[in-house]
Design goal:
The complex is a heterodimer of chains A (about 475) and B (about 425).
Chain A: H1 3-13, H2 35-44, H3 49-64, H4 103-112, H5 116-123, H6 133-147, E1 150-153, H7 154-160, H8 162-168, H9 179-187, E2 190-196, E3 206-207, E4 221-227, E5 232-238, E6 249-250, E7 253-258, E8 263-270, E9 284-293, E10 299-306, E11 311-314, E12 317-320, E13 326-335, E14 340-343, E15 346-349, E16 355-365, E17 369-378, E18 386-396, E19 401-410, E20 416-425, H10 428-436, H11 441-457, H12 462-476
Helix pairs in contact in A: 1-4, 2-3, 3-9, 7-8, 10-11, 11-12
Chain B: H1 2-17, H2 20-32, H3 48-55, H4 72-75, E1 80-85, E2 88-89, E3 101-104, H5 118-126, E4 131-135, E5 145-152, E6 158-168, E7 173-183, E8 188-198, E9 203-210, E10 216-226, E11 231-238, E12 243-252, E13 258-267, E14 272-281, E15 287-296, E16 301-310, E17 318-327, E18 333-342, E19 348-356, H6 360-368, H7 373-389, H8 395-410
Parallel strand pairs in B: 1-5, 4-6, 5-7, 6-8, 7-9, 8-10, 9-11, 10-12, 11-13, 12-14, 13-15, 14-16, 15-17, 16-18, 17-19
Antiparallel strand pairs in B: 1-2, 3-4
Helix pairs in contact in B: 1-3, 2-5, 6-7, 7-8
Classes of the chains: A alpha/beta (about 475), B alpha/beta (about 425).
């Protein structure tokens, strides 16, 4: 193993260090959750009364709900009274130069090919605001502004565009939808808001990276994207760099409202702290993501690369209501060590001639458990609906598990639904072929896994795709032998 | 819910008088409760009406042998026959093949009631008898053994609960045909639980024939335990009945076992057919194959849930599963859930399922060659079914079932 790899090996196997801590001062809600907490959050954010009422309604509903336990994941019970639900974003302890940053973290950045400036931003080094991201962000804001595209933080949108928020908030994921969505509705701290006007094709990929005030939006994030008729946007969430966040429970909600002939492409790369090798610590990523194709000929495409979090439990879904609308779901979920993932999608066909496609690639390594759970539902009126699903699992090591739970419900005779799934391991002949040609075993595994995931990675925007490939290799580090 | 109570009350009344051996199952049943919609295993099988209207009414009916005649296809066939009539195994008329033992099975008592389907537990509490078949080592039964489960419901709503056991000695071979036979048009509730044990290298071919009766609510459950080198083949054919639930659980508890599960179901108006299968690979080097096909017509509803488990260390497992459905009407529904749970890495497992209508191009091809639309459709549907029926070994059964399906598919409108 080369020295580079050794460093990485140490890095990936070492305990999580709180390299930085947020100094919590005054603007913090007391621990615990009750109506006052909800009022406190709403008050702190200067929200209008209707939003407070909406939050309270969600909270009251949440109190009546039971925590779901049907997922194929195990975790100790969460004490919802032991969480601080609001603390005003405080600047992190800033370092003056990259030299002060954990060299191993830098090595990881290096391996992922992250630019120097971004490295600084991610590791909390003070950056020159004029030449760096702020200026970049401002330029982008100008371009977007001219087109009428709104891209801002959720709280900003509540102030500036209350009519839009009021109309669309909870229209795709109602506050009563599920336990974690209700919790999020009650206590969400901030998030992103994106509005694409009629007929506008957003000229650039919108990424939370460019929205500097999006940093540290916390554990209860809320994203709302509205695409008016005939518009197009590609939205990037997350980042390939390791995100070390001290919040254990993340219950975000993402809502996407797509009108006729509009198209939204939503890509996620998630690489949160997965816990140590024994499964201690790590993020619980319990997210509700849903899009509705409300108009005819609308299209929504979800692409996700999930490598982080100790538990990933989410199902980005598509409600295909408009005739001829299209839903797509492309997913790579890699679990290593003690990680658990229960992820997949729901395709609800309501409109006529709606089409959906599911490609899910799971890779289980170490002692991890990886589940695909998906539903394809063809309702009575969905004449001529078409679905194709493919769920493949790759197992590496004899102690991991791969599980598939597809639900297929067909109520219309003209529908055509196909599902196929395979489970296997990397062929010894494939490894042999590579090693015979001088590629070491570890690189061979990375190469084969990348090939296996290619169908999904190809869906990612260019720069993300390159990083995601490296990220996969990094996640698989140490899985051979 | 008045009715759940009524079945429950019935069960609770039993508590005072049932023998010790059945207490465990009863307690477990009372503990888990009767399945309702929120139970994952009964998600698509609504039982409310059954609890409310059927289960309470059902009781024992008089048995009148004069009402009984064999189903025609068995009359002519050269087989051994065993009768179970309204829950009682008829030892007197039993035609037992030489060399094997068949006794009345009246010993209840699940070893461990935990984790069983509620209806398995109910059967263990209520079953009246059944047959206990033992095939000695190295013995092959030449002719098929037909077990006819007669439910006489001509004079009133009837109820029957039976439990059969088969023990296959080393290297023994047997073919059984289980036939559900209903007399009369009343409603009925019957359950049948079978436990099969296959010792080393034994071969058991079993055919489950559910092609008879209307208005019947039938629960059928098979628990198969396989030892090294054994082969278990099952063929389940479901064409009639109001609401049917089949649970087929196979445990491959040793190496080099082979399991083949084939199924065909056809649900017409008001029919509900639910097949749940579990294939549990516990040891390395075993193979399993599963293919279930269904046609849903009118307001017919089909449910399929196939589980494949590959336990840790069950390396070199090969497991295939497939479920294909054709919907002939807009009121027909199918819910399918092919499920894989795998904890071993050196395995090849795959599953697939499809739901759709007949291929328009294939239809066009046939019509362009002068076949009428009805004929072309029937032709294609028969071809769809024949992938299953072609695998039936006993010729008389194959002919009978193929004809029956052909008749069902060709009759009236589509």
């Amino acid at each position: 193993m080369s020295s580079d790899n050794q460093i990485l090996e140490e890095f990936t196997s070492k305990e999580y260090e709180h390299g930085w801590t947020v100094d919590l001062e005054s603007d913090q809600a007391p621990k615990g959750l009750n109506e006052d907490t909800v009022r406190f959050i709403s008050h702190k954010k200067n929200e209008p009364d209707w939003l407070l009422q909406w939050r309270l309604k969600a909270f009251r509903h949440w109190q009546k709900m039971e925590e779901p336990n049907w997922a194929n994941v195990n975790y100790p019970a969460i004490d919802y009274q032991d969480i601080i639900y609001y603390s005003a974003p405080k600047p992190k302890k800033e370092l003056s130069s990259l030299d002060e940053v954990d060299p191993e973290l830098l090595a990881t950045f290096e391996k992922l090919g992250i630019s120097l400036d971004e490295q600084k931003r991610l590791s909390g080094v003070a950056v020159d605001a004029v030449i760096d991201s702020v200026s970049v962000a401002t330029t982008f804001k100008d371009t977007l502004g001219k087109l009428g595209v709104i891209f801002c933080s959720f709280s900003e949108a509540v102030k500036e565009h209350p009519e839009l928020i009021r109309e669309y908030l909870g229209s795709v994921v109602p506050m009563t939808d599920n336990y974690f969505a209700a919790l999020n509705s009650a206590v969400f701290s901030d998030g992103s808001f994106c509005y694409i006007p009629k007929g506008v094709r957003c000229p650039m990929e919108l990424s939370t990276y460019f929205r500097i005030n999006a940093a540290n939006t916390g554990q209860f994030e809320r994203t709302l994207i509205i695409a008016e008729e005939g518009s197009y946007v590609s939205y990037l969430e997350g980042c390939t760099a390791p995100m070390r966040d001290e919040n254990q429970l993340h219950a975000a909600v993402v809502e996407i409202y797509v009108k006729g002939s509009a198209e939204v492409k939503y890509s996620t790369v998630q690489n949160w702290y997965p816990g140590n090798k024994e499964g201690v610590g790590g993020i619980y990523n319990f997210v509700t993501k849903r899009a509705i194709c409300a108009g005819d000929h609308a299209k929504i495409s979800w692409t996700q690369v999930e490598t982080g979090s100790s538990i990933t439990w989410k199902y980005p879904s598509c409600i295909l209501k408009g005739d001829y609308s299209i839903g797509e779901f492309y997913s790579v979920a890699v679990t290593n060590n003690m990680q658990q993932a229960d992820t997949g999608t729901k395709m609800i066909h309501i409109g006529k001639h709606t089409r959906s496609r599911i490609v899910s690639k799971g890779v289980s390594v170490g002692r991890s458990q990886n589940s695909y759970r998906g539903q394809v539902k063809i309702t009575k009126k969905a004449d001529g609906a078409r679905n194709f699903s493919q769920c493949d699992s790759l197992l590496m090591g004899s102690q991991c598990g791969a599980h598939t739970f597809p639900y297929i419900d067909v109520e219309n005779k003209s529908a055509q639904v196909e599902h196929e799934a395979t489970t296997s391991k990397i062929g010894e002949d494939q490894i042999f072929y590579c090693t015979q040609r001088g590629i070491d075993e570890e690189s061979a595994v990375a190469l084969i896994v990348n090939g296996y995931c290619k169908e999904v990675l190809n869906q990612l925007p260019m720069e993300f795709a390159v990083e995601a490939q490296k990220l996969l290799a990094l996640t698989l580090e140490g899985s051979v032998g | 819910m008045q009715a759940t109570l009524s079945l429950k009350e019935k069960i609770e009344e039993l508590r005072e008088k049932i023998p010790e051996a059945r207490i465990n199952a009863l307690d477990e049943l009372l503990h888990v409760g009767l399945p309702a919609r929120k139970h994952e295993e009964y998600k698509y099988t609504p039982l409310t009406r059954f609890y409310e209207e059927i289960s309470g009414k059902a009781g024992k009916t008089e048995i009148r042998p004069d009402r009984y005649t064999d189903p025609e296809f068995i009359l002519k066939a050269d087989t051994h026959k065993l009768y179970i009539i309204n829950g009682m195994f008829d030892a007197e008329t039993a035609d037992i093949p030489k060399g094997i033992t068949v006794k009345t099975n009246d010993t209840p008592g699940l070893k461990n009631p935990k984790g069983h389907d509620a209806f398995d537990l109910l059967n263990d509490v209520l079953f009246t008898s059944g047959c206990n078949i033992m095939v000695p080592a190295n013995f092959t039964v030449e002719k098929p053994l037909v077990i006819i489960n007669v439910i006489d419901k001509a004079s009133s709503v009837s109820e029957s609960h039976i439990s059969n056991r088969i023990h296959m000695g080393q290297n023994a071979e047997l073919t059984i045909i289980e036939v559900q036979h209903y007399i009369g048009e009343n409603e009925s509730f019957d359950s049948s639980v079978s436990n099969y044990h296959l010792e080393k290298d034994a071969r058991l071919n079993s055919y489950t024939v559910q092609v008879d009766g209307n208005n019947n609510y039938h629960y059928n459950s098979h628990h198969v335990h396989q030892e090294s080198g054994s082969v278990y083949n099952n063929f389940t054919m479901t064409l009639s009945g109001k609401m049917l639930r089949n649970n087929h659980n196979v445990t491959l508890d040793d190496s080099h076992c082979e399991t083949n599960l084939l199924g065909f179901y056809f649900a017409d108006d008001q029919q509900h057919i639910d097949n749940h299968t579990t294939v549990d690979h516990r040891k390395p080097d075993s193979n399993s194959n599963e293919l279930y096909k269904g046609i849903l017509k009118g307001t017919g509803k089909g449910v399929f849930n196939g589980k494949i488990y590959v336990r840790p260390h069950a390396q070199n497992t090969l497991a295939y599963q497939s479920n294909k459905n054709i919907l002939l009407s807009d009121e027909a529904t199918v819910h399918t859930k092919p499920q894989l749970e795998i904890w071993a890495d050196d395995v090849k497992c795959s599953h697939g399922c499809t739901a759709g209508q007949l291929d328009n191009e294939a239809l066009f091809y046939l019509r362009s060659r002068g076949l009428s639309e009805d004929y072309a459709k029937a032709y294609l549907l028969n071809a769809f079914a024949s992938e299953i029926t072609d695998e039936i070994k006993p010729a008389f059964l194959k002919d009978y079932l193929s004809d029956l399906i052909h008749h069902k598919l060709s009759s009236n409108d589509r």
